[in-house]
Amino acid sequence: MELFDLSLIWALIIGFGVIMYVLMDGFDLGLGILYPFAPDEQARDIMMNSVAPVWDGNETWLVLGGAGLLGAFPLVYAVFLPALYIGVFLMLAGLIFRGIAFEFRFKSRGNRRWWNRAFCWGSAVAAFAQGAVVGSYIQGFPVEDMAYVGGPLDWLTPFTVLTGLGLMAGYALLGATWLILKSEGGVQAWAYRITPPLLALVLAVFAIISLWTPFVNEAVWHRWFDRIQVIWLLPLLALGCAYTLYRAVRLRREGQPFVATLGLFIFTYLGLVVSKWPVIVPPDYTIWEAASAPESQLFLLLGVLFVIPIVLAYTAWTYWVFRGKVRPGDGYH
Question: Which domain holds residue 125?
Answer without folding.
Answer: 12-212
